[in-house]
Write a structure and sequence with these properties.
Pfam families: CT_C_D. With about 250 residues, the chain is an alpha+beta fold. It has two domains: about 70 residues, Gyrase A, domain 2 (2-Layer Sandwich); about 150 residues, Cyclophilin. About 25% of the residues lie in helices and about 30% in strands. It is built from five helices and 14 strands. α3 packs across α4. The radius of gyration is 20 Å and the shape is globular.
């Protein structure tokens, strides 16, 4: 059994078929890179009995079949792979995601602008001008949590969450922004716009979830006429987000 190094992550049991590898206690890009690097390294090992790895902001949930892979053997594998080599498996490129901002598509845009003493166009420019890291997918199928929101538009969550928000909403909450799936979901975040992109689509064989932890996303404002055409294309099954390799 490998001896855990001093900087090794915490290993926490999660039922009889789960192990949580906890890297830290803060949202940090470097920590998230390590999470994703370990997930990729475990996937590459293709261990018999390894069912799934689920990256989050600062931890990795490893699901396994305890009849095929013992907890001790899995813990040994994790420690043997420590520290994970971030970088080799980083996703090289950026998703360009179209967004229509404001109006019925982003009912909180005016409020966010007033709150920060900005014009709505300044909020749009700030939001669309940043590059965002996908830290994790969770809460709802395809819901992408993004870090990198400009400080000028950091906005506390709503005091009273909405029970339903429009499908494919682009929202902000605290220091984060997010892409919602094509579902009506509850949310306490502020709605800035909508995208035609279906971040979750069960019709996409082999890739129902478009985004993955470690991806980079940039938003591209679009006009109403273009938005309608893109929505129709997405409904027909087309991926209307553009992948730009770096």
């Amino acid at each position: 059994m490998p001896i855990a190094p001093a900087d090794a992550p915490r290993l926490l049991d999660a039922g009889d078929g789960g192990l949580v590898v906890e890297f830290g206690d803060a949202i940090d890009e470097g920590v998230n890179r390590q999470v994703i690097a370990l997930a990729d390294a475990l996937d590459a090992r293709a261990l018999p009995g390894l069912r799934e790895v689920v990256p989050t902001y600062r931890s990795l949930l490893v699901l396994f079949d305890p009849l095929a892979l013992s907890r001790r053997a899995l813990r040994d594998e994790v420690l043997a792979l420590w520290p994970p080599q971030a970088g080799a498996s980083e996703h090289k490129g950026c998703w360009r995601v179209p967004v229509i901002y404001g109006g019925e598509h982003g009912i909180d845009l005016d409020h966010v602008a007033r709150l920060h003493g900005l014009t709505t166009q300044e909020v749009i420019d700030l939001h669309a001008g940043a590059a965002y890291r996908v830290y994790m997918i969770g809460f709802a199928p395809g819901f992408a949590y993004l870090g990198g929101l400009p400080e000028a538009i950091h906005t506390s969550r709503r005091s009273e969450p909405r029970l339903k928000t429009p499908p494919r909403s682009i929202s902000i909450g605290g220091r984060q922004t997010a892409v919602s799936p094509p579902l009506e979901i509850p949310s306490g975040w502020h709605l800035l716009g909508q995208t035609p992109v279906r971040s979750y689509d069960p019709r996409r064989t082999g890739r129902p979830f478009l985004f993955a932890a470690g991806d980079t996303i940039r938003f591209a404002p679009v006009a109403p006429a273009d938005y309608g055409a893109l929505c129709r294309a997405a409904e027909a099954g087309e991926i209307v987000a553009q992948w730009e390799a770096s």
